[in-house]
Automatic annotation (TrEMBL):
Record carries keyword Oxidoreductase: no
Xref: PANTHER family: POLYPHOSPHATE:AMP PHOSPHOTRANSFERASE, POLYPHOSPHATE:AMP PHOSPHOTRANSFERASE-RELATED
Gene Ontology biological process terms, A to Z: polyphosphate metabolic process
InterPro entries named in the record: P-loop_NTPase, Polyphosphate_phosphotransfera, PPK2-rel_1, PPK2-related
NCBIfam families registered for this protein in UniProt: PPK2_rel_1
Listed GO MF terms: polyphosphate kinase activity
Protein name according to UniProt: Polyphosphate:nucleotide phosphotransferase, PPK2 family
Length: 293
């Protein structure tokens, strides 16, 4: 990755503290320049998507995790707006259904993985199982895992095993051609408050507000601890976490797009080249078409 995006990377094998990562960093870029740059990057992403689809050997999985009102939805809509929807799919994961609880916690996420040549975006993801479930361990009981009939059994060893399951899951995916990029939109508690108030004040945004948002906000410190541990346990060289400053939405969108752009550059994808005999046939077909009246 380039040095420009490295500053947001949670390095593999080294513990990070979220307090060391700014929520309002914008560097030397101002908002207007950032918007123009984003449009340029989006055009590049569109071209990269073509080579990804044509090559049909890799897939890209982009994961967004954040606290409420951090800007996940708007980041997805702005950054991905230039992509061909035929080669891109978005899944927003909510509370598991009764049927999903009949399977292991990774099952529904595996079903939503992108095919080769496609880009998959997961708005929330399998990480909810070590984030919201870490803050609310009683949710684990819904999974009916043998030996875990009460929350007292959901201890450090349980979470270590779950992190290991996630690492193994992602390792398997990357070894089979999936590029994984994980974004934590790092918003400040103060900025979240302002955005929640905005949702209340603006009738067109009332639908976005839920009283549950305030319940979870009261658990802010527990969530930050859960995010920090999850990032430290699962940021690997092949499936890295990026901690994106999210107080300024325009900068978060720009940074996310640049990280994705750099990942495509590193892949160095090219359009498939046809064998010489196939190229010769193309010339024959062209001559036939040109000869038509």
């Amino acid at each position: 990755m380039s040095k420009d995006t490295d500053r947001f990377l949670a390095p593999s094998g080294r513990k990070i503290k979220l307090k060391d990562f700014s929520t309002n960093y914008t560097g030397d870029t101002d908002k207007e320049v950032g918007k123009v740059t984003l449009e340029v990057v989006k055009e590049k992403l569109s071209k990269y998507q073509e080579t990804l689809y044509a090559g049909n050997s890799h897939s890209v999985l982009i994961i967004f995790q954040a606290m409420d009102a951090a800007g996940k939805d708007s980041a997805i809509s702005h950054v991905m707006s230039g992509l061909n929807p035929q080669g891109c799919q978005v899944f927003s994961f909510k509370t598991p259904t009764a049927n999903e609880y009949e399977h292991d916690f990774l099952w529904r996420h595996y079903l939503a993985l992108p095919q080769r040549g496609r880009i998959g975006i997961h708005n929330r993801s399998h990480y909810e199982n070590v984030l919201v479930c870490k803050v609310h361990p009683e949710y684990i009981l819904n999974e009916r895992i043998p030996g875990y009939a009460d929350t007292k059994k959901v201890n450090d060893d349980f979470w270590k095993a779950r992190y290991e399951s996630i690492r193994n899951f992602e390792k398997h995916l990357t070894e089979n051609g999936t590029i994984i990029l994980k974004f934590f939109l790092h918003v400040s508690e103060e900025e979240q408050k302002e955005r929640l108030i905005e949702r209340i004040n603006d009738p067109s945004k009332n639908w976005k507000f839920s009283s549950a948002d305030l319940t979870e906000r009261d658990l802010w410190k527990k969530y930050m601890s859960a995010y920090e541990e999850a990032i430290n346990e699962t940021s690997t060289e092949k499936a890295p976490w990026y901690i994106i400053p999210a107080d300024k939405k325009w900068f978060a969108r720009l940074t996310i797009s640049q990280v994705i752009e750099q990942a495509f550059k590193d892949l160095d994808l090219k359009f498939p080249e046809l064998p010489e005999q196939e190229v010769a046939k193309l010339e024959e077909h062209k001559e036939k078409l040109q000869a038509e009246a």
